[in-house]
Design brief:
With about 250 residues, the protein is α+β, with helices and mostly antiparallel strands. The chain has 8 helices and 11 strands. The chain is globular, with a radius of gyration of 19 Å.
């Protein structure tokens, strides 16, 4: 990967190195479990001030509502409300998470419980059920998650790349300190030839990456023999990285 980072201000490097993403990862693993509600397009998570600080440091989700009356309706499976009484008067924040972000917190970091509303009941989703729902509502989810977790496990910050015409944007450190290094395009094995043969599509992405001084990173994801409808497939996939270096103004 790239040798250097493009810092946003003179002391940014010092701040970033003093607060590595790996430290935030460990803090999130040890904090009380977060609660979230599944929706067909995203996952809505409720956080108190401390949890919100960690989510922002880890760059997970986008805050959509803030206030002392903010509440996420879910139960713990026994009919009890998820929200702790000690936080009733505390300012709460609702976050909207991409499916990839939510599954990473649930499956890898193990700090999130996701509930789904079934008629009048709130059902706690295990990893298998959550994975199947996300595959149902997002085509190719298994491939995108494999790519997302591949970068996250390297302690990179991964954000949506929709505004740049790619799947993700990857940062070496927190976006408040550094500019993004990569525009990331996920290429599933079943779509590889289609995407790479579409020269007009690739040319547009390459031009846009050049204009914003980013390197295009292609992640070719090939699944193994395990059915992609089960999270066990995560243990059988392979990912190949290919960097496309672009000069500004191309």
């Amino acid at each position: 990967m790239l040798a250097g980072s493009r810092w946003k201000y003179p002391k940014a490097k010092g701040f970033a190195l003093e607060n590595p993403i790996s430290d935030v990862y460990r803090q999130m693993q040890s904090m009380p479990l977060l609660k979230a509600s599944f929706n067909p397009m995203s996952v809505i998570l409720q956080a108190n001030s401390h949890q919100s600080e960690l989510l922002n440091s880890f760059c997970i989700g986008h805050p959509i509502l803030v206030g002392p009356g903010t509440s996420l309706s879910c139960s713990d499976g026994t009919g009890n409300c998820c929200q702790e009484k000690e936080y009733e008067d505390e300012e709460m924040v609702l976050y909207e998470l991409m499916f990839e972000e939510a599954f990473f917190l649930s499956h890898e970091v193990k700090c999130l419980k996701v509930f789904s509303k079934m008629q009048q009941d709130e059902i706690l989703l295990n990893d298998e059920s959550l994975w199947q729902l996300m595959n149902l509502h997002k085509q190719g989810f298994s491939y995108y998650y494999m790519a997302y977790s591949h970068l996250r496990k390297k302690n990179w910050i991964v954000r949506s790349g929709l505004q740049y015409g790619v799947h993700y944007i990857a940062y070496r450190h927190h976006p408040s300190h550094v500019h993004a290094d990569y525009s990331v395009l996920v290429v599933p094995d079943w779509e590889r030839q289609i995407q790479l043969d579409s020269w007009s599509h690739m040319q547009g992405i390459i031009r846009l990456c050049g204009n914003v001084a980013k390197t295009l990173l292609l992640l070719h994801v090939a699944r193994g023999d395990v059915n992609e409808q089960h999270p066990r497939c995560l243990n059988s996939h392979t990912i190949k990285e290919m960097e496309t270096f672009i000069r500004r103004g191309v």
